[in-house]
Amino acid sequence: MTRRWSLALAALVLIAVLSIVAMSRWPPIHDITTDVDDPPAFMALLPYRTGSVSPPEYDGPAAAAQQQKSYAGLRPLIVSTPPSAVFEAAESLARDNGWQVVAADRGAGRIEAIATTRMMRFKDDVVIRLRPEGEKTRVDMRSKSRVGVGDLGTNARRIRAFLATLAERVR
Question: How do strand 77-79 and strand 136-145 relate by DSSP bridges?
Fold first, then answer.
């Protein structure tokens, strides 16, 4: 066997092992949200999703059940800060994260952006929704990959990190 074939075989074995590890650790879902009952919908991002393998609609009850099992602590952010201040901080944070902000509608309380993964340069779509909740502001988020069946936890990590940083900025 030539060296080239040996390297190719070793790469295939490595990919197989990594795939088995990934499947046992992360669920095969790629549409993550803080509100599985009323997930924020993509609007401004719809033209960017044309030709995407994954449709813009939420993946539904099966994905919600898998998400709740695997990412049980993923919840909306609720803060005692007025929506306008939270909106400003959220839009600024999205830009600080290097996301391409496609729409920022202060009146509707929604921000839509494209986040690009570092290693493989995959495009993931993000929508942030702000709603007043009594004297507080509720921030919901959704992050969905355009390709693949699973995301190796990327979208859940993105939401958790964003909401944790946003909470620090608005409290």
Answer: antiparallel
- CATH code where residue 153 lies: 3.30.530.50
Share above pLDDT 70 across residues of the chain, in percent, rounded to a whole number: 91
Question: By C-alpha distance, which of 124, 119, 111 is closest to 156?
Answer: 124
First-to-last C-alpha distance (Å) of the chain: 62
Structural domain total, the chain: 1
Tell me whether residue 9 is in a domain: no
pLDDT tens column, 74-124: 999 999 999 999 999 999 999 999 999 999 999 999 999 999 988 788 899
Distance CA 122, CA 64 (A): 23
